[in-house]
Amino acid sequence: MSKIMEWVDARLPVTELLKSQATEYPTPKNLNYWWNFGSLALFVLIIMIASGLFLAMHYKADANQSFDVVEHIMRDVNFGWLLRYMHANGASFFFMVVYIHILRGMYYGSYRKPREILWWFGIILFFMMMATAFMGYVLPWGQMSYWGAAVITNLMSAIPVVGEDLVVWIWGGFSVGDPTLNRFFALHFLLPLVIFGVVILHLWALHAVHSNNPVGIDLHDEKDSIPFHPYYTIKDLYGMGVFLIIFCAFVFYAPNFFLEPDNYIPANPMQTPPHIVPEWYFLPFYAILRSIDFLGSFSKLAGVIAMGGAIAILFILPFLDRSPVRSFRYRPLSKQLFWMFVADCFVLGWVGYNPADAAIFEGALPLIVIGRTCTALYFSYFFLLWVITAFDIEKHTPVPKSI
Amino acid sequence: MDIESDEGRRDFLTLATGAVGAAGVAGAAWPFVKSWSPSADVLSQATTEVDIGSLPEGQMITVPWQGKPVFILHRTPAQIEAARKADGEKLPDPAKDADRVKRPEYLVVLALCPHLGCVPQPIGTGNYGGFLCPCHGSHYDTSGRIRQGPSPKNMQVPVYDFKDERTLVIGKATA
User: Fold this and answer.
1) Cis status of the peptide bond prior to A230, with omega within 30 of 0
2) Nearest C-alpha of chain B: how many angstroms from A219?
3) What is the pLDDT of residues A138-150, one digit of tens each?
4) Any idea what the CATH number is for the domain that residue A126 is in?
5) Domain identity same for A61 and A180
6) Of A273-287, A307-321, A347-361, where does the model show the most confidence?
7) For A151, which of B135, B149, B151 is closest by C-beta distance?
């Protein structure tokens, strides 16, 4: 065995790569469980690619057949129901894991120097993941698939001058139809492989600068780190076990919990469902889109810009945060802002879930007012974080000298 | 030959080669990009003929045209009157009712909300006697004009013509 490895290593240094980047890769010794979600995201990506590949072997992208073929997968294909429920719920869990992963990065300042490029690859991954999820949701060709695709592709028409032509080009027709479904399937198949490639770049950027840690200070010497194997392989495996228990509980006992009943009605271009609602993971951004309705004919474009900007603003987060301290553990004001931001995202999600003209307190408080307020709060997180750190308003608590 | 002028020549050659290469790639990409545009069979479904002779006053039908729904409303005198009255009001997307219909009795509009493309609900559902888009709450009047809500524009009037007394043709063959 060692003879064979010697032969291989002389030609391709496999052993050295595994040692330096996996088994003996130095990792901070104080990582907490929030650091499990990166490897967990990779694990879910693998579940999605595997289940998706086998679903694609039974699926047909055709406006006249897709709805029926999904039911064929559910009823006739051996374990087809399991493949589809794993894939559909996997999407929801992928977003849960990734949202926690992003928020962990925000709380412990993992986006700060020297990890900006690592952070940017993460945002690019998040954008691609949303595009993939959106196109995947169109494939069952139910009412929500169809009208979700109609609403989101129509967002492009807000772009001045070229918008209208751009939408026709994306559709391959004058409305969402068979050509749209076909190209979305092709792209839905391709993008996860591109995502996998960018994950490798994300890991390269991580291994170049090494992991941040809950204390948020640089590692001083060898005493601060431990080898990835066996310490973090075992910790990641434990996290995967916990994840699988929750994931399987949904797949086997509540497989339709995250799905919309209206998507079990075949797509009908002549009738919009009374209440179009995106998948839960898009709800906060959908609420931001809808909350800009007070600018007359600019509302639509402004809404689209606000929605895109809500994620794109993460790109400049490394430059907005000027605190001398990375981890929010020692930053009392930043910590409060962070939890306001998290709560705000939940409220935005709730606003996005409800109809546009809904109100609470017997009509006294329209949800649109709450939506506008929460949109303002969402963006003010980034502004206030800059204000309190750029002008030294925040006084940090003592930071340990070493981990 | 001095080195500096040689470097200038090299820079020029590198740039020129790069530019020609980029133009070539752009040219080769064009057929791929263009393949996404509507194909010939999609373009051929340009017109729809509708028999409107049996459509009673006050009622409407939804017909498909190029895969999109079109509302044809046989308007009552009251609905025509309401539409004309609103001509003088301050409208988000100003348009005269007379410019939006070929015959005052028939309103023909694309049943896709200009906001984000949902199909509005039938006549009488909106706040101004017209159509309500259920997605984001845009209200249209009896001329299909936006009166309230996030939509920036009026419901679009497709190209159409009355072939004879009872036949309506939506779209044109050359479209």
Assistant:
1) yes
2) 44
3) 999 999 999 999 9
4) 1.20.810.10
5) yes
6) A307-321
7) B135
Instruction: For residues A300 and A185, state if they share a domain.
Output: no
Residues from chain B that touch A358, judged by Cβ atoms under 8 A, are none
CATH fold group of domain B43-170 = Rieske Iron-sulfur Protein (2.102.10)
Name the phi and psi angles at A388, rounded to 5.
-70, -20
Q: Is residue A21 part of a domain?
A: no
Residues A381 and A245 in one domain: no
Two structure tokens written together for A363: 């009509």
Place of tokens 């409407």: B60
Q: Is the pLDDT of residue A265 over 60?
A: yes
Rounded mean pLDDT of A192-207? Answer: 98
Interface A:B, Cβ pairs < 8 A: 93
Tell me which residue has tokens 């729809």: B48
Q: Which residues on chain A place their C-beta less than 8 Å from a C-beta of chain B?
A: 147, 150-151, 153-155, 157, 168-175, 177, 179, 183, 269-276, 290, 293, 296-300, 303, 355-357
Residue in A147, A155, A168, A174 to test binding to B, most B beta-carbons within 10 Å: A174
Structural domain total, chain A: 2
pLDDT in tens, chain B (175 residues): 556 667 888 899 999 999 999 999 999 999 999 999 999 888 877 788 899 989 999 999 999 888 889 999 999 999 999 999 888 888 888 899 989 999 999 999 999 998 878 899 988 888 888 999 888 788 999 999 999 888 888 999 999 999 888 899 998 754 3
Q: Are residues A299 and A392 in the same domain?
A: yes
Please name the residue that has the structure tokens 């004058």: A174
Mutate to test the interface with A, among B115, B138, B139 (most CBs of A within 10 A): B115
- Structural domain range at position A85: 31-276
Tell me the two tokens of residue A387: 């204000």
For an interface test with A, which of B32, B71, B90, B116 has the most A Cβ atoms less than 10 Å from its Cβ?
A: B116
Same domain, residue pair A234 and A112: yes
To the query of whether residue A279 is one of the catalytic residues in this protein, the response is yes
The pTM is what? Answer: 0.88
Tokens matching residue A256: 């339709």
Q: What are phi and psi of A292, to 5 degrees?
A: -90, 90
How many Å from the N-terminal Cα to the C-terminal Cα in chain B? Answer: 63
Residues of A with Cβ-Cβ distance to B159 under 8 angstroms: none
A110 close to A104: Cβ distance less than 8 angstroms: yes
Last residue of a domain, one of A255, A276, A297: A276
Domain boundaries, chain B: 1-37, 43-170
Q: What value does the mean pLDDT of chain B take?
A: 88
Own/partner pairs for A253-257, CB < 8 Å, 24+ apart? A255/A81, A255/A85, A255/A88, A255/A89, A257/A89
B115: which chain A residues are within 8 Å (Cβ-Cβ)?
A: 154, 300
Cα separation, B88 vs B160, whole angstroms = 26
∠ CA B162-B167-B170, nearest 5°, is 60
Statement: residue A64 has pLDDT above 80: yes
User: Is B149 close to A293, i.e. CB distance below 8 A?
Assistant: yes
Q: Are residues A117 and A265 in the same domain?
A: yes
Write down the catalytic residue from A51, A211, A291, A334.
A211
Place A240 in a pLDDT band, splitting at 50, 70 and 90: very high
